[in-house]
């Protein structure tokens, strides 16, 4: 079943900042008429088409949708969406790396049997260096292996 989105507002770069979703084209069209009569001259609507060439579904990622008020179209900002997903993935990787470092802190205490061992020093340095080895955050390399007993 098709759905329709009215584009109410965009920022200076054309990113959709305010929108409404409707189940029928008539409801979306009526909303645009109302918006234009109430001071929103650039309002328009589009049919959401998640299987189309631009994979447009406003409700899914509104901050990554670019509206063209002249052509009355909305396209996905794939580069912006990819960058955001990569940033989120790197934050998760850093949290995991930090947890592994925290778990290995005991290996550096003077009365620990492995305190100062080259294997543990190398492991901890590898964990600290790990973020710089990640090229694709959503498909990261494996974390360094903890030294064996």
List the helices and strands and how they pair.
Blueprint: E1 3-10, E2 16-22, H1 25-37, E3 44-48, E4 65-68, E5 73-76, H2 78-103, H3 118-133
Antiparallel strand pairs: 1-2, 1-3, 4-5
Helix pairs in contact: 2-3
Provide structural commentary:
This protein has 2 domains: 3-76; 87-133. 37% of the residues lie in helices and 19% in strands. The longest helix has 26 residues, at 78-103. By secondary structure, it is an alpha+beta fold. It is built from 3 helices and 5 strands. Strands 2-1-3 form a 3-stranded antiparallel sheet, covered by helices on one side. Strands 4-5 form a two-stranded antiparallel ribbon.
Keywords:
single chain, 149 residues, alpha+beta, three-stranded antiparallel sheet, two-stranded antiparallel sheet, 3 helices
In short:
The protein has 149 residues and is of the alpha+beta class.
For the termini, the CA-CA separation is 59 Å
Order of helix and strand elements from N to C terminus: EEHEEEHH
Low-confidence stretches: 51-55
Rg over CA atoms? 25 Å
Could you estimate the helical fraction of the residues in percent? 25-40%
Q: Helix/strand-derived class?
A: alpha+beta
Shape: rod-shaped
What is the domain total for the residues? 2
Q: Please give the largest β-sheet.
A: 3 strands, antiparallel
* DSSP helical segment count: 3
**Proportion of beta-strand residues:** 15-25%
User: Mean of residue pLDDT?
Assistant: 84
How many strands appear in the DSSP assignment?
5
Adjacency order of strands in the biggest sheet:
2-1-3
């Amino acid at each position: 079943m098709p759905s329709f989105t009215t584009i109410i507002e965009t920022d200076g770069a054309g990113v959709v900042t305010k929108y409404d979703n409707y189940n029928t084209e008539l409801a979306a069209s009526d909303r645009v008429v109302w918006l234009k009569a109430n001071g929103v001259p650039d309002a328009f609507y589009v049919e959401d088409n998640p299987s189309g060439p631009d994979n447009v579904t406003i409700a899914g990622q509104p901050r990554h949708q670019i509206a063209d008020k002249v052509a009355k179209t909305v396209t996905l900002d794939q580069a912006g969406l990819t960058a955001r997903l990569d940033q989120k993935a790197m934050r998760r990787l850093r949290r995991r790396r930090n947890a592994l470092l925290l778990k290995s802190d005991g290996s550096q205490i003077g009365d620990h049997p492995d305190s100062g061992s080259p294997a543990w020093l190398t492991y901890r340095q590898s964990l600290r260096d790990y973020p710089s080895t990640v090229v694709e955050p959503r498909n990261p390399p494996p974390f360094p292996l903890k030294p064996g007993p």
